[in-house]
Amino acid sequence: MLRRAMDWMYTLSGFVVGAIVGLTGVGGGSLMTPLLVLLFGIHPATAVGTDLLYAAITKAGGTVVHARKGHIDWRVTRLLAGGSIPAAMLTIWVLSMLPKQSAHVSQIISVSLGIALLLTAAAIIFRQRLLQQALAHADDAAHTQYRGSITVAVGALLGILVSISSVGAGALGVAVLFYLYPRLPAIRIVGSDVAHAVPLTLVAGLGHWLIGSVDWSLLGSLLLGSLPGIWLGSHASAKVPDRILRPILAGMLLLIGGKLIAQ
After folding, report:
1. Contact assessment for residue 79 and residue 152, using Cβ atoms and an 8 Å cutoff
2. What is the C-alpha to C-alpha distance for residues 189 and 180, in angstroms, rounded to an integer?
3. What would the mean pLDDT of 228-240 be, rounded to a whole number?
4. Measured between alpha carbons, how far apart are the two ends of the chain, in Å?
């Protein structure tokens, strides 16, 4: 009975997080992983591994939609993946060398998750300012000459961050792409970021599965709630002012990130 009750709690949590993702477009890892760690007491490694596969499945559908509408710049996606996939594989290999489910691993992941949440909150708060600055320097030689190499390097950093914390492939990735590609339409920035997140989270998630950090029952319960939640949130997003939602979400991420670092 207790296990069944917990499964329903996971499903409800998945629904709430899915609805917020649909409303704001911010990656579910920013909310799902800390929720699993802080509210349900799940070991950070298991929370990260499970959430990565959850993200791969939920974002695959979004990628199909964006691809059909021509909202993906595949060159940008390939450049990001060129850095992130090798970095994710290397990070998983390093994690596999550490004692499984140990307090040391838990501390590393919790602090990394806290830092990733603070960076995501900053990306949400300063996104418009970053875009304005990028547009002002969009035609500078320094801004364009090394853009491809910088994109690969950013992909590598995201690969490390996402593999350790499951956070970074959403708001953080979008913010960096807005700065690097200010002339690219916003919808193509978002579509390219979503398309890149699928192989990254799949590779990192499968890596966590191989080292024993995925709870398949938990994954099923989360998906059961999150898929309808994302659908409802997406339909309601036009009715809720973005200027109200984003500061509230950024504040939540700052508080949660600070708690994870301090604990």
Report:
1. yes
2. 10
3. 67
4. 31
Enumerate the H helices of the chain as residue ranges.
2-24, 29-38, 44-68, 74-97, 103-125, 127-136, 141-145, 147-165, 171-180, 186-210, 216-236, 242-262
pLDDT at residue 190 greater than cutoff 90: no
The residue written with tokens 């994870």 in the block is 260
CA distances from 208 to 14, 158, 184, 218 (A): 20, 16, 34, 14
Residue 177, Cβ neighbours under 10 Å: how many? Answer: 24
DSSP state of 211: T
**Does 202 have pLDDT greater than 70?**
yes
User: Where do the structural domains in the chain lie, given as residue ranges?
Assistant: 2-262
Model confidence pLDDT, tens digit, residues 58-95 = 788 778 877 888 888 999 999 999 999 999 999 999 98
Return the closest-CA partner of residue 230 out of 58, 114, 95: 58
Comparison of pLDDT for 123 and 94, the residue scoring more: 94
Contact, 211 vs 226, CB < 8 A? no
How far apart, in Å, are the Cα atoms of 89 and each of 85, 115, 241? 6, 21, 39
Task: Report pTM.
Answer: 0.83
Asked if residue 115 lies in contact with residue 53, where contact means CB atoms within 8 angstroms, the answer is no
Torsion of CA 94, 63, 42, 100, to 10 degrees: -20
